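Q: Could you fold this chain for me?
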Amino acid sequence: MDKPTLNIVATPIGNLSDITFRALETLKNIDIIACEDTRVTRKLLNHYQISKPMLSLHQHSAEKRFEEIALLLKEGKNIAVVTDAGTPGISDPGGRLVEYIVQDLGDQVAIIPIPGATAFVAALSVSGFPTDEFVFLGFPPHKKGRQTFFKKIGETETVVVFYESTHRILKALASLKEVCPERHLVICRELTKIYEETVRGTPEDTLKYYESHPDKVRGEFVVVVGPVSKTRV
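A: Sure. Below is the predicted structure, expressed as structure tokens.
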């Protein structure tokens, strides 16, 4: 008898056409979808005319939800895990569930990655920086640990990539101006969406750009910090 499957399914980070054929087939054939926000996932499913039962699974989900999913797997259900955008578990909910299922069910379940879009990889691909080695740091802390986060970037000589929100991007650039003023940045905003934009320059250059274009300080940002002692892209 085949094992039940827990499928970690990457979904588009903006443009709905970026979903893979395999992801669509998986979503059509599984029993239940565990998603970050059912409203967001429903839009994706409706676009591709897929109808499946859903349950919520987000970063604040209690262990009880993990227990529910484990029970469904024990009953032989095949489950897909998706987030609002990108790859579950990569600065998104999903990682804690996989850890729980591995510990609870072990080899009774097949945990299958269904790869696809990830924002930081898309940004790295257009950065022009050497990417044979890089450090991904996710989102900076909002308050406690934020100074340490940027200090770490300043001390890291290789390429660094992280995410930042609309509300804190200017503060992030100001921090980079302090810790690594000579390094070059590539900032991707709203990747794959209508208002996608890539801005290049030093922390001071990019900070001035966004300060003078407040209409551009919107959406989701991926910041790529170039390596030490490299020429400008």
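A (continued): The helical segments are 21-29, 38-47, 63-74, 95-105, 119-125, 146-155, 169-179, 203-212.
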